[in-house]
Amino acid sequence: MKITAVEAIPFAIPYSKPLKFASGEVHTAEHVLVRVHTDDGVVGVAEAPPRPFTYGETQAGIVAVIDQLFAPALVGLALTEREVAHARIARTVGNPAAKSAVDMAIWDALGRTLEVPVTSLLGGFTDRMQVSHMLGFADPAAMVAEAEKMRDGYGISVFKVKVGRHPVTLDTAVVRALRDRFGDSIELYIDANRGWTASESLRAMRQMADLDLLFAEELCPADDVMGRRWLVERLDVPFIADESVSTPADVTREVLSRSATAISIKTARTGFTTSQRVHHLAEGLGVEVVMGNQIDGQIGSACAVAFGAAFPLTSRRAGELSNFLDMSDDLLTEPLQIRDGLLRVPPGVGLGITIDPDKLARYRTDRH
Ligand code: MUC
Ligand code: MG
């Protein structure tokens, strides 16, 4: 059960449909595959999606921090010494996606070694989650067409609409078009990725007051401290903190200072070990949770559903588990399948997924 090596392999897979939102856009999944090897010959996997516009990480930086700092700190530890592993990698500041992928690959290796699913180790509450799909920026007709495609092809009926553009009517028109097209057969919420000010956000929310939104996410920056509190106090839907809560301490600060009333948990950002802490904290604080998407590929989505399905609080709401559908290909031997709006945890030990060696050879960018 001892860790013998930690590999960080960069790969690049183009998106067939790029995702655009207020803080950036993604055209190619330039992620890092992490593999944790043990002396029993077990290999645990996870992926790190760099998001420079949110957390400052790059693909090359993730490879470097794993190769230079995390791998040497972890080799020789037993897979069960997860808190030691966590403490050692926590000595390095920042780098949430790199830390999370290493953490989740250790859990995957542990599950494979013990021959149990990771979701069972985490909590084992259910084996599936309802799926929410993120709709990136486009004009109203294109966003409605995209939602139709997701509903007709995969049974998805929950949508997170990316907003935060100017003028705000550009976005409110999209949300209205979606509600007009689908009526109450779909659930809708919005995410501005900090694109609006507090007062623009309130204006937009008032324009959409009749559209029955479930949540509003990161409409304005958390650093606009008083503006954000002012906004959250005036809303009658939960305000989700996403990029403003990348640590448990951030969750405490944002919720206790009334700058947020719900939390997005992203396994790409807090792995399994820190996501457990965030989950327990959210439960103790009594705030709602949504399993978010850091524009994950299939490996990352398998991690998100393994965690989300493990607890009642995380599986109660639809999880953002479908954006891999916008990628042209992926690395798994058995692609994840969304049916009737649901994603099941892949059956099997660990994360229940297998990397296809031919696909990895095709998409890795460190060997030519
Ligand atoms: C989201 O919920 O904000 C966009 C950037 C990122 O890191 O995650 C996405 C989705
Ligand atoms: Mg968000």
From TrEMBL:
The entry's keywords: Isomerase, Magnesium, Menaquinone biosynthesis, Metal-binding
Pfam families per the UniProt record, alphabetical: MR_MLE_C, MR_MLE_N
Tree of life domain: Bacteria
UniProt xrefs under InterPro entries: Enolase-like_C_sf, Enolase-like_N, Enolase_C-like, Mandelate_racemase_C, Mandelate_racemase_N_dom, Muconate_cycloisomerase_anti
Its EC number(s): 5.5.1.1
Domain Mandelate racemase/muconate lactonizing enzyme C-terminal span(s) in chain numbering: 140-238
Gene Ontology molecular functions: magnesium ion binding; muconate cycloisomerase activity; racemase and epimerase activity
GO BP term, example: peptide metabolic process
Ribonucleoprotein among keywords: no
Keyword Isomerase appears in the UniProt entry: yes
Cofactor(s) annotated in UniProt: Mg(2+)
Protein family per UniProt: Belongs to the mandelate racemase/muconate lactonizing enzyme family.
Name recorded for this polypeptide: Muconate cycloisomerase
Native organism: Mycolicibacterium hippocampi
